[in-house]
């Protein structure tokens, strides 16, 4: 009996050993391979036209199926299974954020938030909050929103908000900044619209109190925006001209607490601790204390920035570096870089949408690549001069290797960026940031105030050459993708020395890329009209052979305009030269960008229905346009007709120029290419429409109608629609219009008339190609850049 029991135990033990061996082998996928699989698995989030909407049950089923596949297949099967698993993980994050946006925008909910933004005054403002709970259910992964409130609030407080979320939304145009992608990369789901609010915890955070205290010292300084950005990682106080100079010289990265700043904090802590250890007995000298102090200072710097996303990523990479450094096994630096990138994507797959993530990742990889392929000779690296030469050597590598990323993200490069970085980065790294740490660590107001004045003077010195260096900025918008492919292919070829073994193959790939690009070139027949997505306003680009006329120029506000944000970037993106501007009437949402456009393109002629006049009323209303010297002004009133290329323009309205141009004085133009007619209506209202119909009747018939007055209820009468009989209508409007336009009544009027509805708020930029009888419609959200993060979030504008 005992012998049988011993036999069974031995048999089970042998079996367990066998299965344990199989199980161990099945897990034989290295961390490096898993990291590569993770990066490949999340990359599709950049390009997916639609997110795969999986139910939670199906998601769990697929995930466990892949786990089983992982234990069954060989190495390649495991690698592919990991890629699919990580893709599902990233896809789930996308589904989760979309579901939350749709749910929270549909009805009122109790939303518990923690304020993480740092209000600097008690005025009404938008502040950033983290959503903790929805109807008492914990939110994971974390989501953020902005809250516009008149309440006196501070960071660290908790509030219960009963209300809805106004879903994230932004203008989308070619060449413009993709704000909607930025929101999703930072997990910002929209703006909270509160019905009722209730405080849950009213204590301000220690960080908010620290910021309040330092603001009293920072406010009198001339460069307070830069200092505030370096101390707290917040660019909100940065002056517009300084922000422009920093961007055009490649120094914007200094204004966000990220890898450089966290690394400096860590090194500063080590340096200070090593200095103290110099005076201590030998038994107190070790590596642990400097590492702990350095890490503590890095954590503090990340904390004082509010654990901003770039700072948190850098802190994660630093922790991984310290962990690897203290392991007995030997690891390569590139493994640390790869694991750091993968680790960030594991915890936050939506980081793949972030420009800052790509810039910081490529910067680290560029440094490692440059130092491994083109190391600095030993004899040049000696002494103090070696440090300076090493810095120059490193900056040259970064300048060269980051050109593709700069062209993709910033649409240009500055050849003097090397000089700007060699001048400003050492000042910040060796003088400003260490002084900031001393300000934080020495709680003596006189010392802090003196150091801040020194910091202000150093920054002023650093900014002096930037206006001159910024003039070397060169824009390369819409650079062909194959050039980036060749750049990165060249880097890989050199890194792995494929040019020695596969020279013929590499040459063929390069030739094929060029041939494919050449075969893709087609003659652009016809002409096109683009309606830019600018919110409430109008900006139309009428283009033939890369030359354009503009009909209206959008809005303007303090220090900015639609011309700067959308119109000029679009023109540069397509290498279009504007030759003239037609201003429909003198309201700011139509004329706001005119000054900026004429400053950028001084040769522009301006045609309008409100000038030039010598009356005092005109001067008062149009004083901005009067300041533009050498401006060729052309009138726009009934009876004028001209031909430009294949297009014929005819002005139908107004009957005469008006010193003060109102909606019904809009310059109404009908243009034709011989196949189609387009009616540009400005902001005419019912009375203006009635006058047009009485005057022209069936002559108004057009293929395409621009909805008068952005589709408001004061326009688009049945009388106009019966006489124009358009097949499609274009509306330029904002999703969240203060005037609630376009009107649902007008929308259904067009729909019931079987007129195709195109709205910039819903579709983004609208481009219509006119090719003889054919019209090709391209919408930014659906045809031009069909991406899941460009889609419409929340309820439809006009529920059926």
UniProtKB/TrEMBL annotation:
GO cellular component: plasma membrane
Domain Metallo-beta-lactamase: 536-735
Chief location bin: membrane
InterPro entries in the cross-refs: ComA-like_MBL (IPR035681), ComEC_N (IPR004477), Competence_ComEC/Rec2 (IPR004797), Competence_DNA_uptake (IPR052159), DUF4131 (IPR025405), Metallo-B-lactamas (IPR001279), RibonucZ/Hydroxyglut_hydro (IPR036866)
Transmembrane segments: 27-47, 54-73, 79-98, 254-280, 300-324, 331-351, 357-376, 388-410, 422-444, 451-473, 479-496, 503-520
Top-level taxon in the UniProt lineage: Bacteria
GO biological process: establishment of competence for transformation
Compartments, as annotated in UniProt: Cell membrane
Coiled-coil intervals, chain numbering: none
Keywords: Cell membrane, Membrane, Transmembrane, Transmembrane helix
Ribonucleoprotein is among the record's keywords: no
Pfam families the record matches: Competence, DUF4131, Lactamase_B
Cited CDD domains: ComA-like_MBL-fold (cd07731)
Protein topology in the membrane: Multi-pass membrane protein
Keyword Transmembrane helix: yes
NCBIfam families assigned: ComEC_N-term, ComEC_Rec2
Protein name: DNA internalization-related competence protein ComEC/Rec2
Organism lineage string: Bacteria, Pseudomonadati, Pseudomonadota, Gammaproteobacteria, Enterobacterales
């Amino acid at each position: 009996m005992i012998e049988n029991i011993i036999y069974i135990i031995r048999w089970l033990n042998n079996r367990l050993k066998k299965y344990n061996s199989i199980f161990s082998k099945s897990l034989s996928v290295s961390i490096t391979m898993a990291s590569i699989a993770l990066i490949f698995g999340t990359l599709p989030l950049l390009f997916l036209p639609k997110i795969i909407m999986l139910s939670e049950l199906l998601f769990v089923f697929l995930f466990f199926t892949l786990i089983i596949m992982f234990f069954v297949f060989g190495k390649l099967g495991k690698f592919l299974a990991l890629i699919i698993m990580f893709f599902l993980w990233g896809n789930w994050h996308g589904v989760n954020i979309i579901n939350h946006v749709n749910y929270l925008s549909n009805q009122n909910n109790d939303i518990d938030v923690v304020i993480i933004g740092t209000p600097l005054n008690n005025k009404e403002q938008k502040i950033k909050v983290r959503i903790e709970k929805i109807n008492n259910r914990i939110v994971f992964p974390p989501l953020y929103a902005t809250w516009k409130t008149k309440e006196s609030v501070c960071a660290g407080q908790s509030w219960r908000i009963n209300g809805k979320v106004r879903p994230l939304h932004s203008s989308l145009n070619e060449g413009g900044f993709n704000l909607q992608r930025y929101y999703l990369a930072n997990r910002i789901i929209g703006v909270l619209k509160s019905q009722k609010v209730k405080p849950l915890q009213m204590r301000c955070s220690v960080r908010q109190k620290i910021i309040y205290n330092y603001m009293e010292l920072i406010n009198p300084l001339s460069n307070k925006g830069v200092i505030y950005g370096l101390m707290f990682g917040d660019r909100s106080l940065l002056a517009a001209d300084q922000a422009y100079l920093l961007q055009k010289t490649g120094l914007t990265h200094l204004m966000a607490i990220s890898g450089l700043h966290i690394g400096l904090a860590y090194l500063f802590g080590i340096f200070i601790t090593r200095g103290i250890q110099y005076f201590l007995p030998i038994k107190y000298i070790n590596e642990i204390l400097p590492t702990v102090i350095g890490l503590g200072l890095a954590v503090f710097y990340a904390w004082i920035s509010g654990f901003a996303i770039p700072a948190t990523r850098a802190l994660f990479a630093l922790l991984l570096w310290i962990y690897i450094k203290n392991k007995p096994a030997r690891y390569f630096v590139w493994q640390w870089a790869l694991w750091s990138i993968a680790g960030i994507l594991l915890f936050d797959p939506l980081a793949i949408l972030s420009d800052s993530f790509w810039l910081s990742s490529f910067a680290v990889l560029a440094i490692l690549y440059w130092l491994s392929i083109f190391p600095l000779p030993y004899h040049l690296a000696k002494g103090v001069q070696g440090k300076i030469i090493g810095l120059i050597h490193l900056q040259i590598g970064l300048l060269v290797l980051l050109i593709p990323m700069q062209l993709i993200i910033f649409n240009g490069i500055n050849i003097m960026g090397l000089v700007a970085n060699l001048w400003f980065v050492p000042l910040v790294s060796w003088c400003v940031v260490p002084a900031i740490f001393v300000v934080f660590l020495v709680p003596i107001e006189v010392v802090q105030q003196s150091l801040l004045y020194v910091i202000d003077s150093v920054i002023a010195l650093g900014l002096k050459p930037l206006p001159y260096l910024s003039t070397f900025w060169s824009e390369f918008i819409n650079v062909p993708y194959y050039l980036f492919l060749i750049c990165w292919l060249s880097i890989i070829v050199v890194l792995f020395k494929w040019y020695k073994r596969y020279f013929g193959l590499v040459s063929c790939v390069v030739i094929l890329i060029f041939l494919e690009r050449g075969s893709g070139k087609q003659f652009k027949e016809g002409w096109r009209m683009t309606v830019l997505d600018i919110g409430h306003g109008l900006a139309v680009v009428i283009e033939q052979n890369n030359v354009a006329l503009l009909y209206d120029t959008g809005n303007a506000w303090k220090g900015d305009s639609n011309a700067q944000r959308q119109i000029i970037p679009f023109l540069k993106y397509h290498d279009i030269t504007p030759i003239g501007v037609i201003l429909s009437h003198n309201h700011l949402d139509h004329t706001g960008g005119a000054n900026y456009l004429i400053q950028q393109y001084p040769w522009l002629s301006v045609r309008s229905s409100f000038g030039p006049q010598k009356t005092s009323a005109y001067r008062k209303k149009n004083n901005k346009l009067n300041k533009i010297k050498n401006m060729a002004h052309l009138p726009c009133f009934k009876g004028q007709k001209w031909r430009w290329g294949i297009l014929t323009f005819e002005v139908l309205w107004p009957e005469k120029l008006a010193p003060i141009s109102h909606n019904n004085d809009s310059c109404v133009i009908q243009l034709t290419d011989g196949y189609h007619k387009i009616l540009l209506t400005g902001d005419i209202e019912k009375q203006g429409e009635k006058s047009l119909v009485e005057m022209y009747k069936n002559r108004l018939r057009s293929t395409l109608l621009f909805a008068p007055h952005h589709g408001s209820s004061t326009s688009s009468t049945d009388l106009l629609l019966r006489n124009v009989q358009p097949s499609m209508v274009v509306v330029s409007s904002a999703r969240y219009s203060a005037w609630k336009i376009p009107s649902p009544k007008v929308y259904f009027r067009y729909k019931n008339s079987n007129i195709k509805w195109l709205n910039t708020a819903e579709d983004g930029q609208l481009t219509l190609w006119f090719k003889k009888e054919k019209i090709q419609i391209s919408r930014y959200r659906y045809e031009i850049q069909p991406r899941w993060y460009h889609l419409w979030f929340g309820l439809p504008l006009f529920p059926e």
